Amino acid sequence: MNQIEEDIGIICEAMEYNSKVQFSLFLKPLLILNEEDSGEIIQVERLTYFINLQRKLFRVVYSKGVSTLIKFQDAMSLEKK
Fold first, then answer.
1. Which fold has domain 3-80?
2. Is 12 left (phi over 0), alpha (psi -120 to 50) or beta?
3. Where in the chain are the domains?
4. Residue-level pLDDT at 1
5. pLDDT digit string (tens) for 28-60?
């Protein structure tokens, strides 16, 4: 099973039980787009609301219903909380 299939399985299980998922995300600074290895990895813990397989995006919810999108390629690892 590849990484995306594993991540989708973790998220589907978390969505079923209304659990949070901890994402390890790779963020590139806007000023250094030419260097592939530059950037930082951050940890965020959010509820996942929707998976868009065609656009390869996760929709995650912050507090009070504010949501954002996370690209599959930016998620380094996922863990159910």
1. SH3 type barrels. (2.30.30)
2. alpha
3. 3-80
4. 57
5. 776 655 556 677 888 988 888 889 989 999 898
Per-residue burial over 5-44, b if 16 or more Cβ lie within 10 Å, else e, is eebbebbeebeeeeebbebebeeeeeeeeeeeeeeeeeee
The single residue listed with the structure tokens 């996942």 is 48
Give the Å distances, CA to CA, from 18 to 11, 14, 31. 10, 6, 37
pLDDT above 70 for 21: yes
CB of 2 closer than 8 Å to CB of 9: no
Looking at residue 54, what is its pLDDT? Answer: 92
State the pLDDT at residue 64. Answer: 76
